[in-house]
What does this fold into?
Amino acid sequence: MKRRFYGLFLRVVLFFSTILVGGLMAQPDVITRDLMPVPAKAEYPGGEYRLTTDFLFKVEGTTTERLNAYATRVLRRLSGRTGLFILQDDVSNSDTLQNAQFTIKFQREGSLKVGEDESYNLTVSEQGVRLEAVTDFGAMRGLETLLQLIDKDEEGYFLPFAKIEDKPFYKWRGLMIDPCRHWMPMEMILRNLDGMAMMKMNVMHFHLSEDQGFRIESKVFPKLTEFGSDGNYFTQDQIKQIIKYAADRGIRVYPEFDVPGHTTAWFAGHPELASQPGPYKIERRWGVFGPVMDPTKESTYEFLDKLFTEMAGLFPDEYFHIGGDEVKPDHWKANQDIQKFMKDNNIADEHALQAYFNKRILKILQKNNKKMVGWDEILQPDMPNEIVIQSWRGKKALLQASKEGYKVILSNGYYIDLSQPTWFHYTNHPISPDTTLPAEQMENILGGEATMWAEMVSNETVDSKIWPRTAAIAERFWSSNQVNDVEDMYRRLDIISVQLEEVGLFHEKNYPMMLRRLTGGEDIAPLKMLVDILEPVKLYERHRLGVKYTQLSPLTRVVDASRPDSKVAREFNALVERYIEHKEGWVEEKLIEQIVGWSTNMTALKVIISRNPILEEIQPHAQTLEVICEMMPELIDMVGDGRKLSPDKLKLLDDFRSKLKPFGQTELMILKGFNALVTACTP
Amino acid sequence: MKRRFYGLFLRVVLFFSTILVGGLMAQPDVITRDLMPVPAKAEYPGGEYRLTTDFLFKVEGTTTERLNAYATRVLRRLSGRTGLFILQDDVSNSDTLQNAQFTIKFQREGSLKVGEDESYNLTVSEQGVRLEAVTDFGAMRGLETLLQLIDKDEEGYFLPFAKIEDKPFYKWRGLMIDPCRHWMPMEMILRNLDGMAMMKMNVMHFHLSEDQGFRIESKVFPKLTEFGSDGNYFTQDQIKQIIKYAADRGIRVYPEFDVPGHTTAWFAGHPELASQPGPYKIERRWGVFGPVMDPTKESTYEFLDKLFTEMAGLFPDEYFHIGGDEVKPDHWKANQDIQKFMKDNNIADEHALQAYFNKRILKILQKNNKKMVGWDEILQPDMPNEIVIQSWRGKKALLQASKEGYKVILSNGYYIDLSQPTWFHYTNHPISPDTTLPAEQMENILGGEATMWAEMVSNETVDSKIWPRTAAIAERFWSSNQVNDVEDMYRRLDIISVQLEEVGLFHEKNYPMMLRRLTGGEDIAPLKMLVDILEPVKLYERHRLGVKYTQLSPLTRVVDASRPDSKVAREFNALVERYIEHKEGWVEEKLIEQIVGWSTNMTALKVIISRNPILEEIQPHAQTLEVICEMMPELIDMVGDGRKLSPDKLKLLDDFRSKLKPFGQTELMILKGFNALVTACTP
It folds into this structure.
């Protein structure tokens, strides 16, 4: 019955695809060019420096092995992107290289400390290219800018004449990786370090223990991984390799051992640490659980002293994260000994007990010359100012802590596991552009970290949750907080996303791969057309839609293939908004073209869904798409003519819309545009 | 002028793309189903076993950790492919698992020896699934067959009732990986070991030294990698990890240290080993070079004794490859001391000198309980029968050696770096199906190895040269030599190729990624349509077309993105052949549809090429395609009507065809179909 009614909306459109020869390429003349992050200062006096096979690299004066290697990789990437057979061997400061056209000069080896100088000046002129920096890390940042400057015309590849003076806005520009909830192998870490370096990020926060897994070898306590890792953990050799790989890219690596909660996997091998007798096994579910360390036993501190001393020796960074979040008091309350200890020691409540625990841990870290980092919860009255608070709770907590003299980093608003759109993260500032804070407080706001929690991702899908959105977050951390043009950010992001694939990232290429598995090898084009406009449900909705996820659940369904911030939907919805406002003919044509594309695809899409049981769950989205594609041309007509919907039709429409909801934990993202059309036609 | 003439051929075809709903999926009823390799014996009595979330795995009786882990991975892949939330933790032989519907039983732990039992029986019936094997390796082979048996219909996923008895035809089913000429990182090795296991391959030949790189850490001689590897080599820890990873999949790993030639990279750190004083540095060019070890100095053998003893301890396999190929005598001839040594020791010529060298090496290996493997060249009269000859020269050498009592493996015809089509490798047999050899000689022919030489591949492109073609080679090694249906092989290969992506292989997904880099992020569809019908030139032609390749050349051009054995071209050419023979109307329609597709794409293709200088080199292919797309409809018409070309037109056509050649080291593969049409229309 519904179908018969909406048949009235149907409009047959003959459609010939035309190639839009103009407008395919972004105009490079805008001031930000294709650079991401946007530099502090850039001038383009006009003119081009042509790239040829003679474009040789040389370091002037002293150099470092890591800078030579970095520059060599940049040379190869430049050669790869342009196809130029540049025959230079390794880049170095060799005196024999007289004719180098690209010279790099820096004053000293950078040190992996917070606030190290990462500034650089890059000049392109008729004479060649010159990169100057204080440290080799600064030179690395400039090398990435150089690659982003490459442009092309019919004559070949070139660099525009340029004068760039650049330095970071924040000192701490991080990505947190969680290989605990789902295991992330070595190569995932390495390729993402490469991606981070491309985006001038400088710190990897390595979340190494969780209820669901303890992921680093301890030689002192081998049972931690023997019983707590399913065999999936980093050996100490691998950790050293990761730290070196990161250091060679100017990236600090610091570990997080989340205590006293989030520790079930520890207890699988060491139940004696827990507040309840156990036995314990690796937690497979998601959530906040009861198991928690016993903070009243000296043996707990002896254990942590040995472990953290071992780990402090492994990680040269001056920071050490102890987690401290989401501690449930239940097991403490149920333990008589713990209750007695609290009474005997005048510890008022479980909050105070955690504070006591933290202070004991602080001593262990101080003994090892480490500064403590923790989530909001570790902030308590008598903690020293040297600790760093990582704020997951929000800006209010961040501002309060920085005001009280604590160093802070912002993660609230950068939870990239929650499938929010890029603009949301991009417009989230550690220091808002419209606030003025006392200089001292400003100084305390070190920067931020994107956090890639791994409940719902595997090695196959994780990159698509990190990239390209984290490139925009990296710009937020590097560029001035006055850089806020969302549309221009999206323009550049498309280009940068392709460049990020150069270092092997999966964010783009695993999407069709996953669709191929879903169809067992059939042509994926019809399915792709639908999944292109689906997104995973946002925030924590995936846990709340009738599917019980665990660590063992497959992450290969449509919801896993679908990616945050659908470009097709975003652009369609924007066109709808534009049409409602300006009613331009070319916008109408583009909208109709897109709608006809979806309609024409419907038969093939239905066949694919019917043949692949794993796709059944998104069948309702296909139906919805079919119905709204029948309706939208009529609605667009009505908007164009200024007509309004009759009360009858409106009622039927509202009835239809009230039934729309997520299916297969995905959302149909063009409903926004559809709803806008309905609103525009509502009297 | 040419264009004006060929305009006569132009036929305007209005083209509406229609969705071919039927025929999209392969019929699963053929006897080989979707299995690759084809099992020795398979029956399908009819009926289905439905897969549900209760499909639990259990090992009966004793088990091994590696089999448990393998079965757990298979369980996850099954869950991933079907979307079933199977909540089973790790697979094991736990007694508590009463309701397992898939039971695995094997008699003993397999041993990584040539000829180890890899047979298995797999039964699917109403009662569930049963896998039986002699060794855990046999069970692993059966687990892969299980995954390939998964089928689907509108009700869901199922396994067909089946009774499979399977075992390999050859004992030695290998892939040689060369991380020397271009560096291949850890993850390349691991993901390809996974691919090998899927295809029931059982040996990885690890080519670890070359003129262009020495790729394994020696603790005894650290200068080998310090000066000979550009920092790219496997640590001994990594080698152990690789060997374990392979063993866990029933794959032997044995090393090759190519001596006395192909050793320039050794000499960079150890010039004292060479026959000329040096100094030496890593060779960047490709070819066969002069540097060669000095076989007359005792110090050479002392060095090799220490090194090979160290390496023999690292690799538990009983085989050890010493290369021995392509030794140039020039440096020996030019060295007076060597000439004197030959005279003093009655060594007739440089051939005999290498024989002397090999015998000295043989002793070192024997002392370490290793059996020698070498290329054809090591075969000389008084070598013991236990050595294995790897034949790169051809079947004749292979048959001769096996007749003389030597063990042999075939690599000639399996050089997958040479971009030959799958059918070529597939129809190449170690033991031809039409020969009968004495049983003893048959026994000597152990099997074969696909060899992935790395002059022209990087980590980015290497998988596309290995897969999917090596899956067909793996079938050649596992299945009976009576399995020879090329068409059916291609049908199954398409399905298997998608499954191979499950373990992270790049062969399919890096293709569009590389096209994105070539276009700098523009829509790749127009370019893809052309590159889909291009292939790299075959054999060693890439070295001979005016471009001087070295180790430093970019491997990111169209020729690198293009892949061997173009499916689109193969199918188009086959349709042309079919049309010429049968003149069916539907074939004509399909041909015209394809031709119109190419024609319609031409404008967009030209724009993309003109905007991206790196694409300029394939511009002639676009022009050729445009011209032949104008001509082919008319030629097809002529074939249909039985008309022939006039002498004038024929002359012009021959003139045109005489100018066609490779561009950018790629070939336009549909020229075969075009030429067939011309031939059919030639009086």
Notes: The two ends of chain A are 25 Å apart (CA to CA). Chain A touches chain B through 70 residues (CB under 8 Å).
